[in-house]
Amino acid sequence: MTSSNDAGMDALTEPYRDALRRGEFVVQHCKACDRQIMYPRHLCPFCYADDLDFVAAPTSGILHSFAVHRVGSPTGFEDQLPYAVGIVKLPGDVQFLARLHPDAEGDWGQYTLDGEVVFRGADADEMTARPVPWFGLPA
Ligand SMILES: [Zn+2]
Questions:
Q1: Is the preceding omega at residue 82 within 30 degrees of 0, hence cis?
Q2: How far apart are CA 33 and CA 31, in angstroms?
Q3: How far is the CA of 72 from the centre of ligand 1 (A)?
Q4: Which pLDDT score is estimated for 4?
Q5: Which of 61, 68, 23, 26 is nearest to 138 (CA)?
Q6: How far apart are the CA of 45 and the centre of ligand 1, in A?
Q7: Could you tell me the mean pLDDT of each successive run of 10 residues in the chain, 139 residues long?
Q8: Distance 13 CA to ligand 1 centre (A)
Q9: Hey, what domains does the chain have and what are their CATH numbers?
Q10: What pLDDT does 99 receive?
Q11: Ion ligand 1: protein residues whose beta carbon lies under 5 Å
């Protein structure tokens, strides 16, 4: 699903996408100032060092906000309606947009803002086609 004409960006994000395809979630880490970075960048946004690697991310975070999309999906997501996306904050410095698994009732009514969410990848086909972080409610 590589469509970018920016090979530098593809190389930068490949370790992130590869981890998601394996069912793992990583974030970028600055070796100079020891802070975590999301999304992947060429330079640390805190100290501008370029000595960055990827580390396992905390698997539990807080749901800052979310929206359930029932109509009007972007092209390519029509068959996924309804679906939910939210901003997840992990301990430390990172926050990002994530897909949200439906709750036990098949909707998203059990999610609460500032509630705990845990990383749990989607099925292998979805993670291969669209490697993005998926979160759900704790078991
Ligand atoms: Zn840094």
A1: yes
A2: 6
A3: 39
A4: 46
A5: 61
A6: 7
A7: 58 92 94 94 96 95 96 87 96 92 96 97 87 94
A8: 18
A9: 7-136 (2.40.50.840)
A10: 96
A11: 30, 32-33, 44, 46-47, 49
